[in-house]
Design brief:
Layout lengths: L1 E7 L4 E7 L4 E5 L5 H10 L3 E6 L11 H8 L2 E5 L9 H4 L1 H5 L11 E3 L3 E5 L2 E7 L8 E5 L4 E5 L2 E2 L2 E2 L9 H10 L9 E4 L5 E2 H7 L7
Parallel strand pairs: 3-4, 4-5, 5-6, 10-13
Antiparallel strand pairs: 1-2, 2-3, 7-8, 8-9, 9-10, 11-12, 13-14
Helix pairs in contact: 1-2
């Protein structure tokens, strides 16, 4: 089981493609540049099973609709951001880019609780990790020892909380209570910047020290 990082879209958001030896894959946070992502997948003969969204800010969803239609796959998103995919005002595209075109149809599956999520041959543990946005979720994949955290936890940082629905105290609490409880050698696949590990963030993240 492997994953690769593909920076996409206006903010070069990290899109992740997790795939197995049978060339089956899941796509996490396809933020834009749909044609490039499609070509990337086809060049590697990968067969996507689904799109998983850690949250629905514009920079994480820009390629959702084209990739969904091209590969005829379902989209998973938290229930609290159900309307964000369809509304550039809610997903931030209109506010930050002046662009009312970054949107898609609603997700096919709305997650409303924590627990196991099975998508084809892939099994994730879903954690509700709000604070950056109300419907932020993290996908922990034990087989690859990776948590796909979106904009919750970064290498040496945490997600911004000054956007609508953000809450700084809540973000720190869910990082401490949920993500830092994962095995210390877990890789953290962040929404922006380099990947890190739980151990590294416990040891040196200035936002978490002393919490």
């Amino acid at each position: 089981m492997k994953w690769e990082t593909i920076p996409l879209g206006p903010l070069q958001t990290n899109c992740y493609v997790l795939y197995n030896d049978n060339q089956e894959a899941v796509i996490i946070d396809p933020g834009g540049d749909a044609e490039y992502l499609q070509q990337w997948l086809e060049n590697r003969n990968l067969h996507p099973a689904a799109i998983l969204l850690t949250h629905a800010h514009f920079d994480h969803i820009g390629a959702v609709e084209q990739i969904r239609q091209t590969f005829d796959i379902d989209v998973y998103l938290h229930e609290k951001e159900r309307e964000w995919l369809t509304d550039p005002e809610k997903n931030g595209a209109a506010l930050f880019l002046g662009d009312s075109t970054i949107s898609s149809a609603e997700a096919d599956h709305h997650i409303n609780q924590e627990g196991e999520l099975v998508v084809g041959p892939f099994t994730f543990q879903v954690y509700e990790t709000p604070g950056h946005s109300p419907g932020s979720i993290s996908f922990y994949h034990p087989e690859s020892e990776t948590v796909f955290s979106g904009d919750v936890l970064f290498s040496g940082g945490i997600g911004r909380t000054d956007l609508p629905g953000g809450n700084h105290d809540e973000l720190l609490k869910v990082i401490h209570d949920k993500l830092l409880e994962l095995p210390e050698d877990t890789y953290v696949a962040c929404g922006h910047g380099p990947y890190t590990t739980i151990h590294a963030e416990m040891d040196s993240n200035p936002f978490l020290n002393g919490f």
